[in-house]
Design goal:
Helix content: 55-70%
Main location: cytoplasm
Radius of gyration: 22 Å
GO biological process, one term: cytoplasmic translational termination
Oligomer: single chain
Subcellular location: Cytoplasm
CATH architecture of the largest domain: Orthogonal Bundle
Pfam families: RRF
Keywords: Cytoplasm, Protein biosynthesis
Strand order of the largest sheet: 3-4-6-5
CATH topology of the largest domain: Topoisomerase I, Chain A, domain 4
CATH class of the largest domain: Mainly Alpha
Amino acid sequence: MSIQDIHKTMQTKMEQSIAAFKNNLTKIRTGRANPALLDTIHVEYYGSMVPLSQVANVALIDSRTISVQPWEKNMGAKIEKAIRESELGLNPASMGDLIRVPMPPMSEERRREMTKLVKTEGENAKVAIRNLRRDANESVKKLVKDKEASEDDQKRAEAEVQKLTDKRIAEIDQLVASKEQDIMAV
């Protein structure tokens, strides 16, 4: 494995970490409705638990209401029960075969809890990025130890790794700040 291979591997893994972090952020509730909020809900469908998106169409009606349209009429009650029993604190209402899920307004205390959660997720993502930096630096040191690269190559490689790490951490900080702003907006 060469230094370029180490950099490519690290860069790919960092991009995957950031993508996972962005995915986690979509599941954290802001004041507005977001269909991704219901992604974690599973419904019983013919004896097995399946994600809500596989038994119903989930869409936005307006900025504060999500609509859930079951594909089968008999699934309405099960979907409504699953949403109600989830830990999201939502109270769905049936209107014929359409289920409306209004987003209750968030209190100031709840908004602060959500910002703490966002910061925690951000810290976890930063730790993952730093672990990738450590792994890459150890791989480069191993190449130098095995006499496959020079110490000058090691210094350049470590500087490049640090530059990429700083860039990714700044990206995470920006995502955290943006999400906090969304949560605190009334």
